[in-house]
Amino acid sequence: MRYAIFYLIWQTKIAFMKKITSFFVLMVTVLFVNAQTTAINTTATTGTNVTAPAADVLQLKETEHDFSQIPQGKPVYYNFEIVNTGKTELKLEDVHASCGCTTP
Questions:
Q1: pLDDT 10s digits, 75-98
Q2: Mean pLDDT value of segment 8-36
């Protein structure tokens, strides 16, 4: 009889932990789904039209550069020319190299 009571208590604790674990997994999933950015139709919500910016506002003369072989320990540099063809100022933030091996 005593072991049956302990067994029931143990099973109750396991069921409770499964519920808590399931709840946290659900909450994390909801947070990840809500963190995704989506386009909002402003016409439907506010009644005003928002025009998208021009597609080719920044132009690069070269989009990539091959350094070929670089001697170990010798820093190398290259400047990309960026031309703003738009009418407003643009600010470049959080620029990263595609391979992650260099610091821009």
A1: 888 888 888 888 888 777 877 776
A2: 86
Predicted TM-score (pTM) of this structure: 0.34
Instruction: Return contacts of 75-84, CB within 8 angstroms, 24+ apart.
Output: 82/58, 83/58, 83/59, 84/57, 84/58
C-alpha Rg value of the chain to the nearest Å: 28
The structural domains of the chain, with segments of one domain joined by +, span 2-37
* Per-residue pLDDT band at 22 (split at 50, 70, 90): very high
Helices (H), 36-102: 42-46
Amino acid letter, 9: I
Place of tokens 């506002």: 57
Residue 4 tokens, joined: 């049956």
d(CA 60, CA 97): 15
Query: Hey, which residues does 83 pair with through a beta bridge?
Result: 59
